[in-house]
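Amino acid chain:
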Amino acid sequence: MPLPGAFLDRQAFLLILTFMPTPTFRLRGFQRISDAVVDSLGKLEQQALAEVRRLGETSVRQVYQTMDESTAYTTIMTTLDRLYRKGLLNRRKDGRAFLYSAKFSAGELEIGVAEDVIGTLLDTNTGPVEPVLACIVDAVSDRDRQFLDDLERLVREKREALESRKK
């Protein structure tokens, strides 16, 4: 008999994970996954990304000035360009300069990483999905009966939606 979660769509699954009162998953026992992504950046990249998030849409000059001009302007320019090429910043031309803005909030980055992890866990090409789903059901039921009820309701709604598409 397949587990009820086999009919759970990605949005419902993320919703459950978002509100599930579980300890935050820690990479190697120490870091949240999104922190590990940020930590994979160099110190200057982390500082520049934090400044762009704080300032909103901003120029290289503004970031340079908020960092007390302690790092060369061209180094800041290169760092912002690297963050743009890594997909963490948006960039648009304004006259002769570029304006940068964060592509993702810290929360959106965490959700994106979670989607990647969930997608990998639920990839049927890498093995059976049932053990992963069983762990999710166990984690939900161990912590809160209401979440288990919510999971059951979401599965039921998803099944009904799939059945109505067949008709």
In short: The first strand starts at residue 26 and ends at 27. Helices lie at 10-19, 33-39, 43-55, 60-66, 73-85, 106-121, 130-143, 145-166. The two ends are 24 Å apart (CA to CA). Residues 1-8, 19-28 have pLDDT under 50 and may be disordered.
